[in-house]
Amino acid sequence: MVKLIRNSKFHNSHLIFIVVLLIGVVIISGCVSLTSADPLTRIKALSSVSDQDVLANVAMSDKEQNVGIAAVKKLIDQNALATVAMADISPRVINAALKELTDQNLLATVAMKAKAESARIAAVEKLTDQNLLSKVATTDDDSKIGIAAVKKLTDQNVLVMVVMAAKHRNVGVAAVKLITDQQVLVNVAMKAQEGGIRKAAVEKLTDQDILAKVAITDDESYVREAAVDKITNQNVLVKVAMMDDSSNVGRAAVEKLTDQNVLAKVAIKSKDSGGREAAAKKLTDQRILAKVATTDDDTVVREAAVMKLTVQSVLAKIAMMDDDAHAKTRKVAVEKLTDQYVLSKVAIKSASGEVREAAVKKLTDQAILAKVAMKSNFTDVAQAAIRVIDNDNILYRIVKKAKTDSIKAYAVAHIDSAQYLRKIIENRHGQRHTQNVAKIRLMSLDPFVVQALGKLKIFYNVNFFAQDHESEYRSEDALPLYENISVKIQDASFSDLVTTHFGPPANYRESFYFSEDRSMATKKNYTKVNLNEVALDLVKNLPGEVRFKVAKNASMKLLKEAAVKLTTQ
């Protein structure tokens, strides 16, 4: 009996050993299969694995996505699923883990700590707990995650908490956009620390009194501007336009004003130049516009007023102001002028060369241009007027009546009628420069010259240069001035046919005038133009056969003599 029991114990222990051995073999076999090079073998091996840590490790470490997904599908432990979702692994494996993850606290942890942004956003999308969503929205370093969390919020109280506690302005703004309670929005607009959040609240406000308070008191100009955009009360808008020192806010307020009297007040008295400019642009009262255009300290405001002016006499008055600070305003005024008489007045009387030039450029009436050329004290203005005149009779009238010989000579250079040129020479209109130019111009209009060289342009320039003399008798401000005259004749292609200079030799010294006390005083030393030399240089440009015709038939003695001289050489 004892023997039998001993034998039975032996057999039982032997049987247990065999079973344990078999289990070990299976486990070892499974572990070996999970490290197989074949993904399908690894997936098949997972069917015999239930250990959550092993499965999570496979999901996070296996290089083959399908193996990782297969491991995730066997996971039931929420912590293990959260661990997989936060890992820096394949998005497909992460998504598979998130699909199985339902625990709200763990989803919030994934939303805030996962390596991949896509995993964090996906976790937020599965969150429904308002407090957890609020926590994500207010604490996450990434505003994109915070905004995603805010979009899931529905509780108004929670949204307010997010607005006040948000790390990022964008998150707070996103929360404000979901708030519907006007009183809550008032609190945000008045109390939120971040200007962008206050602005978002202001944009949703309807209470005009609160909007007015924000428009006047908020520290940030862009918040005040947002409030102004919502205000309809004209009195409040006037107050803002008059007091605010921000151009953008002032302009925004003025844009909503309609009363001309109010606009006039703002245009004259507003602290901010931007507000005054905006008001000027909306004004129609010519009297107020004129006042702004002539008295405002800011050039841009003055220009805005001038652009709205239409009264020609007022524009002319502005154009002729002699204050250099109003230079740009004057030019704008001239551009607005259309009356030819008024333009001529500006061209003649303005103290600014730039304004005079701009006025002349707008003149088209030939008689008025002639008036400018004859009456102007400024050579540049007279010459600009003459360049526009294409009537020889009017040019001849200028030659007879212009104030200076230089202006007369300039007019002569533009005459195309040989008849008028002969009259100028015969009647001795003008002085020596006018006479010189008339004779040179007449040469250029000779029929043979025109036939060979085309229509020519005459340039006759006179200037004086000073040359000092050291003398114990010279008065301190005395300088001898020497006249230098250059003559240039160009063809239609701007090629120089004649370029000649006349003046004293380089070493020439002319005595000073002596004043009554015998001290030397300034003296002008004049130069004589050698017209024979000019004629000779012009004829040199003619072909040989034309020279013979000029030598035989030219009506002008100077030209004929030059041609004869060249043909007999």
Quick structural summary:
64% of the residues lie in helices and 6% in strands.
Provide an overview of this structure.
The longest helix has 33 residues, at 2-34. Among the domains are: 38-127; 390-443, no CATH class; 446-569, no CATH class. The chain is built from 36 helices and 6 strands. The termini are far apart. A hairpin with a 5-residue loop joins strand 4 (513-514) and strand 5 (520-521). The chain is an alpha+beta fold. The radius of gyration is 49 Å and the shape is elongated.
List keywords for this structure.
single chain, 569 residues, alpha+beta, two-stranded antiparallel sheet, 6 strands
Largest sheet: 4 strands, mixed
* Total count of strands: 6
Helix percent reads 55-70%
Low-confidence stretches: 1-11, 14-32
For the termini, the CA-CA separation is 167 Å
Silhouette: elongated
Strand and helix layout:
Blueprint: H1 2-34, H2 39-45, H3 52-61, H4 65-73, H5 78-86, H6 91-100, H7 104-113, H8 117-126, H9 130-139, H10 143-150, H11 156-165, H12 169-176, H13 182-191, H14 195-202, H15 208-217, H16 221-230, H17 234-243, H18 247-255, H19 260-269, H20 273-282, H21 286-295, H22 299-308, H23 312-319, H24 327-336, H25 340-349, H26 353-362, H27 366-375, H28 379-388, H29 392-401, H30 405-412, H31 418-426, H32 432-444, H33 447-453, E1 457-466, E2 480-490, E3 496-502, E4 513-514, E5 520-521, E6 523-525, H34 531-539, H35 544-553, H36 557-567
Parallel strand pairs: 2-6
Antiparallel strand pairs: 1-2, 2-3, 4-5
Helix pairs in contact: 1-2, 2-4, 3-4, 3-5, 4-6, 5-6, 5-7, 6-8, 7-8, 7-9, 8-10, 9-10, 9-11, 10-12, 11-12, 12-14, 13-14, 14-16, 15-16, 16-18, 17-18, 18-20, 19-20, 20-22, 21-22, 22-24, 23-24, 23-25, 24-26, 25-26, 25-27, 26-28, 27-28, 27-29, 28-30, 29-30, 30-32, 31-32, 32-34, 34-36, ...
